[in-house]
Amino acid sequence: MKSKEKISGHCRQLRLGAIGSQVESIADNASAEGISYLEFAEKLLDIEIQHRNLKDMERKTKEARLPITHNLQEYDCSLVEGMPASRLEQLKELTWLDQKFNLIVLGPNGIGKSFLSAGLCHHALKNGYRAYFRAMDEIMTMLRTRDISKPAMADYKRLQKAHLVVIDDIMMIDIARNEANAFFHFINMLHEKTSFIITTNKSPKEWAETIGDEVITTAILDRILYRCEILKLNGESFRLKNRKTIFSSID
User: Fold this and answer.
1) Within this chain, do residues 180 and 214 fall inside the same structural domain, yes or no?
2) Which family does it belong to (predicted)?
3) Looking at the structure, do residues 199 and 165 belong to the same domain, yes or no?
4) Range of the domain at 40
5) pTM of the predicted structure, to 2 decimals
6) Does some domain include residue 248?
7) Is 228 left (phi over 0), alpha (psi -120 to 50) or beta?
8) DSSP letters along 49-111, please?
9) Is 125 exposed, middle or buried (0-12, 13-18, 19+ CB in 10 A)?
10) Residue 221 to residues 75, 141, 216: CA-CA distances in angstroms?
11) When you count CB atoms within 10 A of the terminal residue's CB, does the N or C end of the chain come out lower?
């Protein structure tokens, strides 16, 4: 008992939480299996590394701010025109991310643009990339408040180091000229260093109507479209197709 308490104390001091909580059961299993001291040490370290990797992934997922629906295994390509399974598999290889390519996911509301982009963001996270998911209004709020808000500045610095930034529902909100200028500088800062996935129901030609400044719009598009694939999706709205009701059906 004293040995267990001493080992637990050492683990707390060394911040080996997984080993400290499981060392007794691991030792019992090792004794039953008759493994060597080196194999026992390897098991201990494997458990600690797995625990830390899990915690690290949980932290990264929280910082990414992924929506609830982000598991690509649940994405049904048969329900969407423009995203065959072969193309999705190619996107999952992430060569476009290594090449600093951008993706624009274009299509009507409700067909899974956010689902697809969040899924690719999560897939990138699992493969060791720094990836973040932000709605357009979150990006603009961050840019407006970064000089007066520590959380906004922290997020700004976090996105500066990203391999991938998803901007969801771009051009869904009207942007004032000064805000459009700030958004341009944000895109320009990350240009050729970070890949973007942008979801939108408006074609790039329509973006000027939201921004209200053709020069700034052209400058933004020049950077986004320089190395970019436009994925045009179509189909029936998932939300309307699977609409819920609080009422029971009445004959």
Assistant:
1) yes
2) Belongs to the IS21/IS1162 putative ATP-binding protein family.
3) yes
4) 2-64
5) 0.80
6) no
7) beta
8) HHHHHHHHHHHHHHHHT--S---GGG--GGGSBT--HHHHHHHHT-HHHHTT-EEEEE--TTS
9) buried
10) 29, 21, 9
11) C
